[in-house]
Each structure stands twice: as structure tokens, then as C-alpha cells.
Design a protein that fits this description.
339 residues; alpha+beta; TIM Barrel; 2 domains; four-stranded mixed β-sheet; three-stranded antiparallel β-sheet; 12 helices; 41% helix
Length: 339
């Protein structure tokens, strides 16, 4: 996990250089070299092919339990793709009635899973979308032994860009607030089938922040007035308001932390790179008293509830203040320890 944090740090730095990097004829740009460095680093941190294969087989088993023997899945990290990553679909030669009929190879488990989705969509007329937009519709998939063949040399699909990013920071409030592991497992399967390999993983951060802020002498009452409730996490995390819908119980904090400990390994097993939160500078009001010399600004009223000012006007620690670095480093260390 330490390496994962470093990878994401490199990603943010290298993709946002301090000065433009023009593309020169006949030469790679500095940005291209940076992406290649990140990809090499990412590859070195990825789960072994055997682990990824087991994860891809799990996606197949949960999606089409009757067809687990109908597909031959292979994770091929090297030599399969011309560019970033890819999958290849073909018919199995001399397939038997109870044996594999279709072979799907991919550079990661995500590519294998998205190759499975591609085959089901374009050869079997199946539809696999998000729950609220149709969900899983696989009634058109023929019975084992009768799957449509992929003629000729098969089909190979190259990914045009390295990463397929998913979510934004408010979905944790709009959609995910009450999900359990069963629902998250279904979502991660959906991500893999859609080719997502760079998803946000924001669960459990309040439990981490509680431990961090305790080390900065922030008490439970002050944290209760700082954290928003489960359905308002996004607004509290972004510093739009504080305390509304809270306080968060220790049971809820523990539940979210334990959930994250299931989410992260599954994403990594599938060859994904989870994107974890970092420190934005949003701090409890008590920080002004604990650190009177720190550069902390009280923000304006983004919104208040029933005209009550106690929910508005959060506090932001200036990123140039040494305390910002100290708090941010403590949060990352605590995430590594916690996950």
C-alpha cells in the first residue's frame, strides 16, 4: 500500500508539470516520458497474474454461474498489447460440450473482464449497465455449449488511453452512503466489466481522520461538530459545511473502515489502481486555538441550514503553512497503517 500512495503522488506531480511540455517532431515529449514512467511503476506494483486471473474468474462466476466452464480466461501482462493494455477474444479450437468455448486474454484482470463484457454485448446481445440504468440483463446469453463463435483470428481491442477513471467525490453521498460489501462487490464487478482501472476509493477516511486529529489533541466533541453525517460526507469533506447530519458513531466509523479493507484488496486483485484521498486543508474549528500561529482562514457561508450559522463557515489551513505538510503526512501514514 505504501507503493500505491507513492504511485498516486507521482501521478499528480508528473501529469501537472510546472511548465508546459511541447510535443517536438520526432521526439517524445516530457509528458509522454512521465506517463511511461508511471505505467512502469504501476506495472511493478500490480497483483501477480495468478491473483488477477482468480479475480477475473470470480467476476465471471458471479455474473454467469452456469458458464464458468464456457470461457477460458488468461491474464497476459507482457507481449499481448501494442500500446497501453488490451484484450483479445477468440473461439477455442476443438471445444467440447462441457469445456471452454471462448478464450478471452487480457493484460490485466480488468481487461479480461471488459473483454468478457464486449463478447456478451456484441455476440450475445446482453446488456450490463449500472443498477439504476438497466442493470444486468443476460437472458439472451445462450446455454453452455451453444455460445456464438468468434470467426477467423478473433478480435483484439487496444485501450487508447492508459486509464479509465470512475466516480467523483460526491458519489459517496449521492449513492454509496449506505452500501454494504455485497453491494460494493457488485459495483466493483461492474467497474471491471466496463474497463474501469482508476476508481476512487474514499470509504473509511473519517475513521482515519479521527485517529490523526486525536494526535493533534482534537477531542471527540470537536470532531462531532466537524464530521458531517453519512449522507452529507461530500459537503463536509469539501469544507462546504460541518457537523450537519452528524455526529458519526464509532460503530459507523469502524464499519466503513472494515468495508474499505474489503474494497481495496478486491480492486487491486483485479489490476485496478485505487485512488485514495489526501489532505485538502479542511480542519476542525478547534485548530485555531490549538495552533494560534497557523494560517487558518474561516471560509464564507456556502450554505446554512434553517439560518443556523453553526453549520456553515468551515476552516481551511493554508497549503503553504508547515502545519499543512505535517497534517497531510500524518494522514497518509495513518492510511498506510490502517489499510
Amino acid at each position: 500500500m505504501r507503493a500505491l500512495f507513492l504511485l498516486l503522488l507521482h501521478l499528480s506531480i508528473l501529469l501537472h508539470p510546472s511548465s508546459p511540455s511541447p510535443v517536438l517532431a520526432g521526439k517524445k515529449s516530457r509528458g509522454t516520458d512521465a506517463v511511461e514512467q508511471i505505467l512502469r511503476r504501476e506495472e511493478s506494483l500490480r497483483a501477480p497474474p495468478s491473483v488477477q486471473l482468480a479475480a477475473a474468474q470470480g467476476v465471471l462466476r458471479r455474473l454467469l454461474p452456469r458458464h464458468t466452464s464456457s470461457f477460458l480466461l488468461k491474464v497476459v501482462p507482457k507481449g499481448l498489447c501494442e500500446s497501453f493494455s488490451c484484450f483479445r477474444i477468440g473461439s477455442v479450437v476443438n471445444s467440447s460440450l462441457n469445456g471452454p468455448e471462448i478464450m478471452i486474454e487480457g493484460s490485466t484482470a480488468v481487461e479480461v473482464s471488459s473483454g468478457l463484457h464486449w463478447y456478451l454485448k456484441y455476440w450475445c446481445g446482453a446488456h450490463i449497465s449500472w443498477d439504476k440504468t438497466g442493470g444486468v440483463q443476460v437472458d439472451t446469453v445462450p446455454s453452455p455449449g451453444s455460445l456464438p463463435r468468434v470467426e477467423g483470428q478473433g478480435v483484439k481491442v487496444e485501450r487508447p488511453v492508459p486509464w479509465n477513471y470512475y466516480q467523483n467525490v460526491v458519489t459517496s453521498s449521492y449513492s454509496f452512503a449506505w452500501w454494504d460489501w455485497k453491494r460494493w462487490e457488485k459495483e466493483i464487478d461492474w467497474m471491471a466489466l466496463q474497463g474501469v482501472n482508476l476508481p476512487l476509493a474514499f470509504n473509511g477516511q473519517e475513521a482515519i481522520w479521527k485517529k490523526v486529529f486525536k494526535d493533534f489533541d482534537v477531542g471527540n466533541e470537536d470532531l462531532g461538530n466537524f464530521f458531517g453525517g453519512p449522507a452529507f460526507l461530500a459537503w463536509a469533506r469539501m469544507g462546504n459545511l460541518h457537523g450537519w447530519g452528524g455526529p458519526l458513531s464509532q460503530n459507523w466509523l469502524d464499519q466503513q473502515l472494515n468495508l474499505q479493507k474489503l474494497i481495496l484488496p478486491r480492486m487491486i486483485e483485479l489490476g485496478m489502481t485505487p485512488v485514495l484521498p489526501a489532505f485538502s486543508g479542511n480542519v476542525p474549528a478547534i485548530f485555531r486555538k490549538i495552533f494560534p500561529t497557523a494560517n487558518i482562514t474561516r471560509l464564507s457561508n456556502w450554505n446554512t441550514v434553517n439560518g443556523d450559522p453553526r453549520w456553515c463557515c468551515t476552516y481551511l489551513l493554508d497549503p503553504s503553512d508547515p502545519l499543512f505538510i505535517e497534517a497531510g503526512r500524518a494522514f497518509i501514514k495513518q492510511q498506510i497503517k490502517g489499510f
